[in-house]
């Protein structure tokens, strides 16, 4: 399994140079490390910020599960999407508003064909809101199918 929480920095995260803004580290409330966030007031409506996780050594013809924590806090804060490299340009996961300020868990099955996925991109799209943030943390990749809750 690959554990890519931002506090430990074992994973290869890259900011996209062609997007509109960067994701930034934000401190956790309880002080145990940090997560990556995009505050609601950054940029203009429809601006995009992309954070890419480079994956190496995934085996072809096998399945993996990507599990991550995410939070969409605030009125009309925007959208969070996840894309897999080598797949069609549509997101494999998308969320456009939080019911509350709580952290939730996202899960995505990644099935490898002959070509392996070499990156996962978290994309934040700016909404109309002026308060809140979009946050991502604790990105974990495990081999096999995603566990049931």
Automatic annotation (TrEMBL):
One GO CC term on file: membrane
A Pfam family hit: MAM
InterPro entries found in the cross-reference section: ConA-like_dom_sf, MAM_dom, MAM_domain-containing
MAM domain ranges (all copies): 2-148
Domain of life: Eukaryota
Listed name of the protein: EGFL6 protein
Gene of this entry: Egfl6_1
